Amino acid sequence: MADQISYLTLTGGTPVLAADGQELGTVEHVLSDPSLDLFDGIVVKTTLGRRFVEADSVEAITDDAVRTSVASVDELLKPQGDAVLEADPDEYAEGLTGWFGRMFLREHWVRDRPEDTDE
């Protein structure tokens, strides 16, 4: 049996399972505020795009999977709120200048993440 872990140590790519054990997708990221010890839920990469699993629907987080009370991916909502942007210093050979351009959202440096196109 897998050991239970904290949402603070949950990593991207971990399988997220439906109530019947079928895989819904994989963890993209955890929504939380560690300073308040507040776990809001998990954003999951699915075949339908990113979906949100509320904390109340998470039954167990183990070192090998997240088990939920959700019956199917169709029950999950699309995440709402501001877009998540990530800077990738290795994406271009322009070095630190390019990295700062992407961090401060200079139009010619920013690119949409591929998974953002499904929403």
At a glance:
The chain has 119 residues and is mostly beta strands. It has one helix spanning 96-103; strands at 15-17, 23-33, 38-46, 49-54, 58-61, 66-68.
What labels describe this entry?
119 residues, mainly beta, six-stranded mixed beta sheet, 1 helix, 6 strands, globular
Write the layout of secondary structure elements.
Layout: E1 15-17, E2 23-33, E3 38-46, E4 49-54, E5 58-61, E6 66-68, H1 96-103
Parallel strand pairs: 1-6
Antiparallel strand pairs: 1-2, 2-3, 3-4, 5-6
Task: Give the tally of β-strands.
Answer: 6
Secondary-structure-based class equals: mainly beta
The helix content, as a percent range, equals: under 10%
Q: Which sequence of SSEs, written as H and E, runs from N to C?
A: EEEEEEH
Major beta sheet summary: 6 strands, mixed
Order the strands across the largest sheet as they lie in space.
Answer: 4-3-2-1-6-5
Query: Spans with pLDDT under 50 lasting ≥5 residues?
Result: none
Shape type: globular
Would you tell me the overall average pLDDT? 80
Radius of gyration: 16 Å
**Count of DSSP-assigned helices:** 1
Portion of residues in beta strands equals 25-35%
Q: What is the CA-CA span between the terminal residues?
A: 37 Å
Describe this structure in words.
There is one protein chain. This protein is mainly beta and 119 residues long. The chain is 7% helix and 30% strand. The chain has 1 helix and 6 strands. The chain has a 6-stranded mixed beta sheet with strand order 4-3-2-1-6-5, with no helix packed on it. A hairpin with a 2-residue loop joins strand 3 and strand 4. It is globular, with a radius of gyration of 16 Å. The mean pLDDT is 80.
